[in-house]
Backbone:
């Protein structure tokens, strides 16, 4: 490999993030920039696409071709971009509400479609931008919210990794925002891996979920190597406590791509309608 | 001569499997071979296959852009459920009803028109031919009665069937000839087609949905993501086959939210992009269209309108998406809305839409409808048009210069880089932003960017294609979209009756062009607005957006019944008194 032309700093813009001090998303931003640099990518050949929410602010903080789109739709924008421009590296980023609630259907179909892009979800189990409502990954009994009833919503949390596996994602990993190098390495591997790669990053919201400060003391590297067997990956997820970091699954599906070659002229198309 | 006296309209009815659509397709192809123009629409229920159906045809020596007032021939192989769409089969005392006696009595709702009823035992006649089918008997009868003659049908059968299905060819040929011989013996006087005019160049047979697809490609569309929906699906089927042949991409998305956002992503990547849908899908796409406005990402949405609201009447036409197309986006979100005026014009207008969207980096909605999209016409080939996608792209800035994606230019259009261009990285955003693209909630940035996004649409020179303006007189018929053909025919008829009227049909519905409309209306004292909606959406739009010289009379009706030339003609005569 040639010496990298760009450093992680070259992938950062000078726009100041809106995030609270101590937000886990700072670490993810650093990890993404580091992953891009480690892969020897160029900022102008890289794209970061997002939806809406705290973490979805991330494209403006990068020096890539960013797209800060609308709530829940980032994966659709990213898929369109990658299918049109297979030469670009497309990374889609966002939060748990954006990706699993309003964007849940797109998440499922992005997994099964398997376009060659990487999806980084900064999961803090809360809607931060709207000031602390329960999200799809919020624990059923969490009630420290003006919108949650006493005792919590009582609704079983969404299991992003299990759903990604069931829907056919080709690469599934879990990371922790506080581990910048580890997260960067997982994102870099996800980018390199063909097809749809899903990296669920535990990224604490210390403003509305102060108890998530404790995550750093409970997370651990998974004791298992990644598997290529979806059944084994599913069994591991069944017994998983949610704190095992690393690559869970590497699939063998081919990327969904559309070859682009011209086989006929527009005059040929016209002739189909001639009497 | 007005077109109606030189045309013959034919309705072929039969339940699924009776083969009336096959017969109608063959009749259109034969007429086209013989040099005639044709318009072929179908009325069918919601069944996936089978059920009641009617093929509705109009043949003429002149180009056709409207249905006629009545059918000269209604031929029924059976009467199954015909009552459900009898209102779409207007007849009068000059009409012929050709019915198989084994199908039972002619339904009263049809016979009360006073049409001459002629028994035609198609099933029996077919049985006398080995492999013969009643629909081929019908084809021969109609060819004979209308003066088309059996020879063009025979020639067409030879081309379409002879090689592939020799048995079917022999049987069909014999049945058609038998039908034609029978037709000549019937006591069934019928309006005759005039001789076909000499043909200059070839002809096309095309549906509005296919024409829109071809227009999109001619305009430079290379990406389509879409979700199937009636009555837009044929345009998607066309694009899914055609785009890969010319190096383009077609994706079936999981829903309309994904469709529009995939298109926005692809367009951001540099490909001119389109999606096609109908009202329910357009409703879902409005959030994405707002993003396209704010992020200044060009995209074309073909909306093939159907009866609404909600699921409405998916298989029938209506012009009731005008409000959502123009006013349906939240915030102040100026964008482009166009409407094709005929099946052939679906090609031009969609091509123009691509050009306009790309030139102004804005979303453009094309309001077609079921009557255009799913009808097939024989037309003159679409001429070449100069309108292509020609996006103003950005180049790497010089040393020391900073690229500003949303720069406040005089035209309002700011260069849009193709990702991969060094030095032009920016973040496209649905958040309000400064010139650089950086999110901003400042009043000054908001008003400047709102001005910019409006300015680029208002300052564009749309040229003469913004509207069809024909004729002169103190009466103006103002209409749009698929009603234009009927209005044109009515204006021609009124002129023959000594009532001068002009036709004004804007192809560009948004933005509005006050100066051009004022010129079109110069000297007008009375206005008739013609549209196919229950609320009179177009009339409200005209009165809200334009200074009109008079309060309009309105001929407005929801679908599925088409607005026919005779209704407009009658109103014009009353206004001309």
Residues:
């Amino acid at each position: 490999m040639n010496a990298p032309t760009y450093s992680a700093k070259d992938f950062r813009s000078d726009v100041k993030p809106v995030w609270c001090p101590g937000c886990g998303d700072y670490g993810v931003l650093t990890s993404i920039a580091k992953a891009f640099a480690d892969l020897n990518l160029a900022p102008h050949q890289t794209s970061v696409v997002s939806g809406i929410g705290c973490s979805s602010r991330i494209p403006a903080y990068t020096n890539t071709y960013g797209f800060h789109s609308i709530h829940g739709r980032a994966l659709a924008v990213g898929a369109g971009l990658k299918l049109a421009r297979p030469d670009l590296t497309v990374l889609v980023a966002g939060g748990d509400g954006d990706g699993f609630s309003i964007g849940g259907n797109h998440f499922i179909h992005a997994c099964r479609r398997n376009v060659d892009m990487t999806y980084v979800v900064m999961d803090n189990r809360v809607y931060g931008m709207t000031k602390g409502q329960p999200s799809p990954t919020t624990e059923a009994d969490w009630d420290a919210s003006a919108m949650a009833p006493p005792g919590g919503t009582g609704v079983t949390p969404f299991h992003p990794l299990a759903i990604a596996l069931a829907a056919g994602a080709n690469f599934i990993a879990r990371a922790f925002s506080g581990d910048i190098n580890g997260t960067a390495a997982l994102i870099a591997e996800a980018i390199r891996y063909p097809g749809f790669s899903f990296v669920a990053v535990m990224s604490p919201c210390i403003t509305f979920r102060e108890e998530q400060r404790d995550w750093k003391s409970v997370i651990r590297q998974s004791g298992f190597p990644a598997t290529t067997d979806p059944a084994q990956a599913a069994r591991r997820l069944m017994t998983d406590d949610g704190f095992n970091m690393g690559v869970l699954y590497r699939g063998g599906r081919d990327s969904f791509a559309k070859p682009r070659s011209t086989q006929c002229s527009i005059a040929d198309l016209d002739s189909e309608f001639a009497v | 001569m007005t077109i109606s006296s030189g045309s013959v309209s034919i309705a072929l009815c039969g339940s699924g499997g009776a083969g009336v659509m096959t017969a109608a397709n063959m009749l259109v192809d034969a007429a086209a071979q013989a040099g005639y123009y044709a318009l072929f629409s179908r009325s069918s229920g919601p069944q996936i296959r089978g059920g009641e159906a009617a093929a509705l045809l109009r043949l003429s020596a002149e180009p056709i852009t409207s249905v006629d007032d009545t059918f000269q021939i209604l031929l029924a192989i059976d009467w199954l459920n015909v009552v459900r769409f009898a209102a779409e089969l207007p007849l009068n005392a000059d009409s012929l009803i050709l019915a198989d006696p084994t199908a039972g009595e002619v339904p009263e709702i049809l016979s009360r028109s006073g049409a001459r009823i002629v028994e035609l035992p198609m099933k029996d006649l077919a049985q006398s031919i080995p492999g013969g089918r009643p629909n081929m008997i019908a084809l021969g009868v109609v060819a004979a009665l209308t003066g088309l003659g059996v020879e063009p049908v025979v020639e067409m059968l030879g081309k379409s069937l002879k090689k592939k299905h020799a048995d079917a060819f022999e049987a069909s040929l014999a049945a058609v000839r038998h039908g034609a011989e029978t037709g000549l013996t019937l006591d069934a006087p019928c309006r005759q087609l005039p001789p076909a005019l000499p043909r200059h160049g070839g002809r096309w047979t095309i549906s509005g949905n296919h024409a829109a697809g071809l227009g999109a490609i001619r305009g430079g569309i290379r990406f389509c993501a879409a979700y199937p929906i009636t009555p837009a699906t044929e345009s998607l089927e066309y694009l899914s086959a055609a785009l890969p042949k010319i190096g383009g991409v077609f994706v079936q998305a999981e829903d309309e939210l994904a469709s529009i956002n995939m298109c926005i992503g692809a367009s951001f990547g540099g490909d001119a992009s389109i999606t096609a849908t109908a009202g329910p899908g357009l409703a879902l796409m409005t959030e994405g269209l707002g993003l396209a406005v704010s992020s200044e990402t060009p995209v074309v949405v073909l909306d093939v309108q159907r009866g609404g609201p909600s699921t409405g009447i998916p298989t029938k036409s209506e012009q009731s998406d005008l409000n959502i197309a123009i006013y349906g986006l939240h915030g102040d979100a100026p964008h482009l809305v166009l409407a094709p005026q005929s099946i052939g014009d679906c090609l031009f207008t969609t091509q123009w839409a691509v050009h306009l969207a790309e030139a102004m980096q804005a979303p453009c909605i094309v309001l077609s409808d079921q009557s255009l999209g799913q009808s097939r016409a024989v037309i003159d080939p679409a001429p070449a048009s100069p309108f292509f996608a020609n996006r103003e792209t950005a180049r790497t800035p010089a040393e020391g210069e900073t690229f500003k994606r949303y720069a406040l230019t005089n035209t309002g259009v700011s260069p849009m880089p193709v990702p991969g261009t060094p030095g032009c990285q920016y973040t496209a955003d649905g958040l309000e932003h400064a010139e650089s693209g950086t999110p901003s909630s400042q009043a000054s940035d908001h008003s400047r960017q709102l001005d910019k996004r409006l300015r680029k649409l208002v300052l564009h020179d749309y040229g003469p294609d913004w509207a069809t303006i024909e004729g002169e007189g103190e009466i103006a018929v103002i209409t749009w979209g698929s009603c234009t053909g009927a209005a044109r025919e009515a204006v021609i008829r009124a002129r023959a009756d000594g009532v001068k009227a002009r036709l004004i049909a804007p192809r560009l519905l948004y933005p509005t062009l006050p100066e051009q409309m004022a010129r079109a209306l110069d000297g007008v004292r009375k206005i008739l607005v013609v549209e196919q909606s229950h609320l009179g959406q177009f009339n409200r739009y005209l009165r809200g957006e334009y200074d009109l010289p008079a309060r309009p009379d309105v001929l407005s009706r929801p679908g599925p019944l088409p607005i026919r030339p005779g209704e407009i003609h009658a109103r014009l005569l009353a206004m001309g008194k």
Summary: Chain A has one domain: 17-271.
